[in-house]
Amino acid sequence: MGTWIRHQLGRRPVWMNVLMLFCAYMTFVYVPWDLLVKPTALDEEVWFGIRFHGAWAKLLAIPHWFVYAAGMVGFWQMRSWMWPWAALYMGQVAFSMLIWPMLYQGGFGGFVVGLVAGAVFLVPTVALWNATDRFGPQPAPLAERYGSWALVTGASSGIGLEFARALARDGISLVLTARRDDALRELATELERAHGIETRVVPADLSSSAGVEEVLAQVDDLEIAILVNNAGVGCIGRFDLQDREELLRMVQLNCAAPVALTAELLPRMRERGRGAVIFVGSIAGSQPLPLHALYSATKVFDNFLAESLWGELQGSGVDVLGLQPGRTATGFREAAGQLPNAGVPPAGVVAAALAALGHQPTVIPGVANWAMVNAAYRLLPRSILSLVARRVTLAQTPDELR
Question: Are residues 149 and 122 part of one domain?
Answer without folding.
Answer: no
